[in-house]
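Handoff note, outgoing to incoming analyst
You'll be picking up this chain. Sequence as last confirmed:
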Amino acid sequence: MLPVVPALTPRERGVLWLLALAQLPYASANTIFTQTVSWVADDFGASDAAIGVAAAVVRWGVVLALPVAILGDRAGRRRAVLAAAWLAPVLTALGALAPGFAWLTASQVVARPMALALSVVCAVIATEEMGDDSRALALGLLAIAAGVGAGTVVALLPIAEWRLPGLGAGWRAVYLASLVWLVVPLVLQRRLHETRRFEAHAAEAPVRLQRGRLAAQATVAVLGNVFIAGASVFLVNYLRDARGFDAARVSLFTLVTASPAAIGLVAGGRLADRRGRRVLGAASLAIGTLCFVAAYLVSGAPMWAAALVGGVALGVAYPATGVYRGEMFATRRRGTASGLVTTASLLGGSAGLLVAGLLLDRGAGYGEVMALLALGPLAASVVVLVAYPETAHRALEDLNPGDAAGSAGASGSAGAGDAPQSSSAP
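Most recent structure output, in case you need it:
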């Protein structure tokens, strides 16, 4: 009989709503370069190889997210979230002023890491504030909120083909629209509070980072993102060049095939919390990868169906595997470890992008290239099965014994009568 997953408490729901709000500027800033680069490249005369290099360079900027993640471990999660939430929209909007492809790339090298740092610290807060049987579900729900933020960029894509007075190419307006997300840090400033676990351990010296756990997760992150980065960045080019889609059809394809991934995120979170993460994460990662490869090999309705099923499967995989980033490290190292795994993931993605761009420029087919890159996540699924422990239904203090001494009153989530506290502290 399946364990019963308890309902979220009022405190948990309040924290989750705030973290979901923070996903909007994160996902918008994280998605915008990938979604607009095809039109930007056309405007500035950049090749597929240049797109691959630029997308890789933008990902290398992830090292700038590490100081924010470390700040979260030293000065508190709230301060780190607020810093990133203010910086991400402003820096992203600077892309609207870029005089050339290299300048746009440089602006996003700085902007995207702030968005990634925001996501990393929000995931840490979710891990620390949710109950032992709802951590994966919370991660899946946050990913749905991120999908909404990314969807706003996709919905604006038809503007990329316009010529606008005062701005010129329409893609500049998409970047400028990022400023709307400045409302988010205003709300977080008033409502977001520090996690109880951080407060319980703030005075302690950081414990040693567990290198074996970090190595296993970094390996999976690198192998998985080798394919995912290439498949996402070159999807627009594939649809435009190989299938003849215009901007409106690209937007429609993305929304139709990606939106159902929300089903996978919720189902994956619930199943991971009930039955366990390891087998579910490995199987769904492999299935999703194979489906996306198929989407690059076929056309018409089968292409749409393969992308849709692949999105749902990878949606299941995300909470089942992503929840480990927060669960397997002590409180005073949780943000740093999550930031390091995210850095490894982006560096792995940059390698995939470079390989994909070079092969495509040399005449390789999209399907061939994606099939080659798919070897990465297929290997990652094996690593998950072999090296990952099962963490469902276990307290963070049980998974990280070094935290146990300072965990009195901090483990689990708040009682049903508790609500998120307002805070005006810097």
